[in-house]
Write the structure tokens for this entry.
Amino acid sequence: MTLRLRADVSTADTDYGTVLLDGADGRYWQLNASASLTLRTLLDGGTVDEAVRRLTGTYAVGPDRAREDVERLLTRLRDARLVRP
């Protein structure tokens, strides 16, 4: 699964993670460092499993919790309509 942001969604990396700006309505979302790592992995063509491995290799989090976090982020991105279907 390759995740793609909508064309009018832009990103900016910060010291604290990533900010997503929806150019269509002006809303923005701030992702923390772990959500940013997840998003980058998925945008680069990585799978959910790869995102889980990167999270567990970078942060003190178990695989079950990491998978829940990845799935939750994907759900929120879809619900906010920031990603292409």
Residues 9-79 form one domain.
